TrEMBL record:
It comes from Cupriavidus cauae. This is PQQ-like beta-propeller repeat protein. Gene3D superfamilies: YVTN repeat-like/Quinoprotein amine dehydrogenase. Residues 187-221 are annotated as: Disordered.
Length: 221
């Protein structure tokens, strides 16, 4: 298993009126930040919040190319990002304790925090199709280039883990600096992860190892 220290490229926030970051997603232009009672769209080049949707957003966030998906307590809402309308909802795996959320291969992938699990979920019905088990608390979940990654956070220790989607076996780890917890995780599809920072109210961009060293305007903002 490969292990490396995280290279934090940039910190965004804390943001006015945001007490905590509960989830993050990326739509190709904006980083969506779940702040409890709102979803906010951030420009990663400037760090400015550009739009706000008034929806319950107290855990993970995902984007399927057209719609946002947002954990809201015991359900997962499908949201039109243009209007903020909740177009449908499905039950989350549990009534509480749901954490990260990702979209990949036609399914939703839902982290279950203290149960240390990741569930593959049917986005139409909420049925659980597969379950992976971790040995750490699971926070954010993301897919990139066919790789499943999830965040962990216990005490002062947090890391990003690339795991086998069939077995849950850890393939590589990126260790966050002490005190930098991960409350949400999303890839930009290229060389970086966006990590929610929980009660710090921050979002951090972290280098995806082995994917080049050219920083974009987001890391220099």
């Amino acid at each position: 298993m490969k292990t490396a220290p995280a290279e934090v490229l940039h910190e965004y926030g804390p943001f006015p009126g945001v007490d905590a970051v509960h989830g993050v997603s990326y739509d190709g232009q904006h980083v969506w930040v779940a702040t409890g009672d709102k979803l906010k769209a951030m420009d990663p080049s400037s760090g400015q919040m550009l739009r706000t949707l008034d929806v319950t957003a107290n855990a993970g966030t995902a984007f399927d190319g057209r719609y946002l998906y947002q954990i809201a307590d015991g359900r997962i809402d499908k949201i039109d990002p243009q209007t903020g309308e909740v177009v449908s909802s499905i039950p989350a795996p549990t009534k509480d304790g749901n954490s990260g959320l990702a979209w990949a291969e036609g399914s939703l992938w839902v982290g279950q925090h203290r149960e240390r699990k990741i569930h593959q979920v049917d986005p139409e019905t909420g049925a659980i199709l597969r379950t992976l088990t971790s040995d750490r608390f699971v926070t954010g979940v993301t897919w990139v280039d066919g790789e499943l990654w999830h965040g962990t956070w216990e005490g002062e220790a947090s890391d990003l883990r690339h795991v086998d989607p069939a077995t849950g076996e850890v393939i590589e780890r990126i260790e966050m600096p002490a005190g930098m917890g991960v409350s949400g995780l999303e890839s930009d599809g290229a060389d970086r992860f966006y990590c929610g920072g929980g009660p710090s109210g921050k979002v951090r961009a972290v280098r995806r190892k082995g994917r080049g060293s050219n920083e974009t305007s987001a890391s220099r903002a």
